[in-house]
């Protein structure tokens, strides 16, 4: 990464020390949780505890092998989902395991032998056991299939009565294919790879609260994903891809294929010539990469022992004890209604809340729950109406105040009294080395870090 690192000395700033880290809460995981996690890893990560036990019953290192296997699989799962790859089951890993997802494995690679021979693929939607009236369902499925045929050499043909390549069904519990649905939540749907008979078929769990918008589980998003399998695609480790295995609801996000989805389906079926001619108008969104030399951030905050970087729908988390920076979707940690493309975020450790800013609105969150009455207008914090958004927020834990950056100005907000103190000052006067306006700021390990474009500036207060 070509970030420029400057170590600057402060002028007339208050001495600061790294925030005391709160003790880690007890994980409180039960045996049932452990069992759930093992089953999850068996199902989605090919963890073989049962067969290991039988095969290696006579071997003395059996327990050790099992534990290592479990740990390695746990790490694989944690890596896939942007969690700390500790190999241990912690509360956060368990929470991600319990999130709604697709029923297929995350580690199986299909190769290119699973594809339909013809570029015209038929599908069939039944008339009964549908969660919505048939015309609505047909519209949703047609749109989900169109995502794929827009970019690849594929045509979809609907059949009314005869068996088709892709047979859709809403079913619950044990429905005869060996893959039992688990009532509401957990596994939402599964699909079979292209082949004869059940191959290509897509099953949705009828016990889910399906929706056509963002209130429940959005049928369009899940259908687009499952049709990807029905066409031969495996799960993608690209968290921005439709083929990522977990389901996250995101407000105001229109699902679309990512760059990697488009590349993968075109590898199987070739490129739709109309897609090439439209390239100048629409190109599939690429998931940002941390090694991109032009990467900039929307917001950055210290959070417990981590530094969290926000960009569009994504975030990276850097733990002080781990070298690896982990990526996830904002919505995987802070669900609806925290929006994407945030302007600023900060944590107030003493008062135990996080504030998220976007445009003229801000949200207060405590223990992952957005507080009642939010979002509010930033004018409630004491900004005049001419301030339309906040560029960055920097929280000083010891002194219990927060500095907000807006354009060329900065504002000091007294957290204890909940008031903006005095008038704003120019950033240039307070922090002469920092090029205003800035993108983000955070306090981490005794340094203030300012972010602007693809550069960051380390500001050392403790002289
Ligand atoms: Zn899937
Ligand atoms: Zn099934």
Automatic annotation (TrEMBL):
<dbReference type="Pfam" id="PF00413">
    <property type="entry name" value="Peptidase_M10"/>
</dbReference>
<dbReference type="GO" id="GO:0006508">
    <property type="term" value="P:proteolysis"/>
</dbReference>
<feature type="binding site">
    <location>
        <position position="225"/>
    </location>
    <ligand>
        <name>Zn(2+) 2</name>
    </ligand>
</feature>
<keyword id="KW-0677">Repeat</keyword>
<feature type="binding site">
    <location>
        <position position="393"/>
    </location>
    <ligand>
        <name>Ca(2+) 5</name>
    </ligand>
</feature>
<keyword id="KW-0177">Collagen degradation</keyword>
<feature type="binding site">
    <location>
        <position position="165"/>
    </location>
    <ligand>
        <name>Ca(2+) 2</name>
    </ligand>
</feature>
<dbReference type="GO" id="GO:0005615">
    <property type="term" value="C:extracellular space"/>
</dbReference>
<feature type="binding site">
    <location>
        <position position="199"/>
    </location>
    <ligand>
        <name>Ca(2+) 2</name>
    </ligand>
</feature>
<feature type="binding site">
    <location>
        <position position="182"/>
    </location>
    <ligand>
        <name>Ca(2+) 3</name>
    </ligand>
</feature>
<feature type="repeat" description="Hemopexin">
    <location>
        <begin position="387"/>
        <end position="434"/>
    </location>
</feature>
<feature type="binding site">
    <location>
        <position position="201"/>
    </location>
    <ligand>
        <name>Ca(2+) 2</name>
    </ligand>
</feature>
<dbReference type="GO" id="GO:0030198">
    <property type="term" value="P:extracellular matrix organization"/>
</dbReference>
<keyword id="KW-0862">Zinc</keyword>
<feature type="binding site">
    <location>
        <position position="190"/>
    </location>
    <ligand>
        <name>Zn(2+) 1</name>
    </ligand>
</feature>
<feature type="binding site" description="in inhibited form">
    <location>
        <position position="102"/>
    </location>
    <ligand>
        <name>Zn(2+) 2</name>
    </ligand>
</feature>
<dbReference type="InterPro" id="IPR024079">
    <property type="entry name" value="MetalloPept_cat_dom_sf"/>
</dbReference>
<protein>
    <recommendedName>
        <fullName>Collagenase 3</fullName>
    </recommendedName>
</protein>
<dbReference type="InterPro" id="IPR036365">
    <property type="entry name" value="PGBD-like_sf"/>
</dbReference>
<feature type="repeat" description="Hemopexin">
    <location>
        <begin position="435"/>
        <end position="463"/>
    </location>
</feature>
<feature type="active site">
    <location>
        <position position="226"/>
    </location>
</feature>
<keyword id="KW-0479">Metal-binding</keyword>
<feature type="short sequence motif" description="Cysteine switch">
    <location>
        <begin position="100"/>
        <end position="107"/>
    </location>
</feature>
<comment type="similarity">
    <text>Belongs to the peptidase M10A family.</text>
</comment>
<feature type="binding site">
    <location>
        <position position="243"/>
    </location>
    <ligand>
        <name>Zn(2+) 2</name>
    </ligand>
</feature>
<feature type="binding site">
    <location>
        <position position="229"/>
    </location>
    <ligand>
        <name>Zn(2+) 2</name>
    </ligand>
</feature>
<dbReference type="GO" id="GO:0031012">
    <property type="term" value="C:extracellular matrix"/>
</dbReference>
<dbReference type="InterPro" id="IPR000585">
    <property type="entry name" value="Hemopexin-like_dom"/>
</dbReference>
<dbReference type="InterPro" id="IPR036375">
    <property type="entry name" value="Hemopexin-like_dom_sf"/>
</dbReference>
<feature type="binding site">
    <location>
        <position position="203"/>
    </location>
    <ligand>
        <name>Zn(2+) 1</name>
    </ligand>
</feature>
<dbReference type="GO" id="GO:0030574">
    <property type="term" value="P:collagen catabolic process"/>
</dbReference>
<feature type="binding site">
    <location>
        <position position="439"/>
    </location>
    <ligand>
        <name>Ca(2+) 4</name>
    </ligand>
</feature>
<feature type="binding site">
    <location>
        <position position="235"/>
    </location>
    <ligand>
        <name>Zn(2+) 2</name>
    </ligand>
</feature>
<feature type="binding site">
    <location>
        <position position="205"/>
    </location>
    <ligand>
        <name>Ca(2+) 3</name>
    </ligand>
</feature>
<dbReference type="InterPro" id="IPR001818">
    <property type="entry name" value="Pept_M10_metallopeptidase"/>
</dbReference>
<keyword id="KW-0378">Hydrolase</keyword>
<keyword id="KW-1015">Disulfide bond</keyword>
<feature type="binding site">
    <location>
        <position position="175"/>
    </location>
    <ligand>
        <name>Zn(2+) 1</name>
    </ligand>
</feature>
<dbReference type="GO" id="GO:0008270">
    <property type="term" value="F:zinc ion binding"/>
</dbReference>
<feature type="repeat" description="Hemopexin">
    <location>
        <begin position="288"/>
        <end position="337"/>
    </location>
</feature>
<feature type="binding site">
    <location>
        <position position="208"/>
    </location>
    <ligand>
        <name>Ca(2+) 3</name>
    </ligand>
</feature>
<keyword id="KW-0272">Extracellular matrix</keyword>
């Amino acid at each position: 990464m070509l970030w420029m690192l400057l170590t600057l000395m402060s002028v007339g700033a208050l001495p600061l020390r790294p925030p005391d880290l709160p003790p880690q809460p007890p994980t409180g995981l039960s045996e049932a949780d452990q069992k759930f996690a093992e089953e999850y890893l068996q199902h989605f990560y090919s963890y073989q505890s049962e067969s290991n036990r039988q095969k290696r019953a006579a071997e003395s290192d059996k327990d050790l092998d099992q534990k290592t296997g479990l740990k390695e699989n746990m790490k694989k799962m944690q890596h896939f989902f942007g969690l700390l790859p500790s190999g241990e089951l912690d509360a956060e890993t368990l929470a991600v395991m319990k999130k709604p997802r697709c029923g297929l494995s995350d580690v199986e690679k299909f190769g290119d032998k699973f594809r339909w021979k013809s570029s015209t693929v038929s599908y069939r939607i039944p008339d009964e056991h549908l969660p919505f009236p048939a015309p609505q369902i047909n519209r949703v499925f047609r749109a989900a299939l169109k995502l794929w045929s827009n970019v690849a050499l594929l045509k979809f043909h609907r059949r009314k009565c005869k068996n088709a390549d892709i047979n859709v069904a809403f079913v619950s519990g044990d429905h005869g294919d060996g893959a039992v649905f688990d009532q509401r939540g957990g596994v939402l749907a599964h699909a079979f790879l292209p082949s004869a008979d059940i191959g290509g078929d897509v099953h949705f769990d009828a016990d889910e609260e399906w929706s056509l918008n963002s209130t429940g589980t959005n049928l369009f998003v899940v259908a687009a994903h499952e049709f990807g399998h029905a066409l031969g695609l495996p799960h993608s480790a690209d968290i921005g891809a439709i083929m990522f295995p977990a389901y996250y609801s995101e407000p105001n996000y229109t699902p679309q294929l990512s760059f990697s989805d488009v590349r993968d389906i075109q590898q199987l079926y070739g490129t739709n010539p109309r897609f090439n001619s439209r390239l100048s108008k629409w190109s599939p969104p690429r998931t940002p990469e941390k090694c991109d030399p032009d990467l900039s951030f929307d917001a950055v905050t210290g959070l417990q022992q981590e530094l969290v970087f926000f960009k569009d729908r994504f975030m990276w988390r850097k733990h002080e004890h781990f070298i690896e920076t982990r990526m996830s979707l904002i919505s995987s940690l802070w669900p609806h209604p925290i929006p994407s493309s945030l302007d600023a975020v900060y944590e107030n450790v003493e008062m135990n809340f996080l504030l998220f800013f976007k445009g003229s609105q801000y949200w207060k969150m405590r223990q992952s729950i957005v507080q009642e009455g939010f979002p509010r207008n930033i004018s409630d914090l004491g900004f005049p109406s001419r301030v339309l958004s906040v560029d960055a927020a920097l929280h000083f834990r010891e002194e219990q105040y927060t500095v907000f950056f807006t354009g060329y100005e900065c504002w000091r907000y007294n957290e204890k009294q909940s008031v903006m103190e005095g008038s704003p000052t120019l950033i240039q006067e307070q922090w002469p080395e920092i090029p205003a306006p800035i993108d983000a700021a955070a306090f981490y390990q005794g340094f203030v870090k300012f972010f602007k474009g693809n550069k960051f500036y380390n500001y050392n207060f403790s002289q």
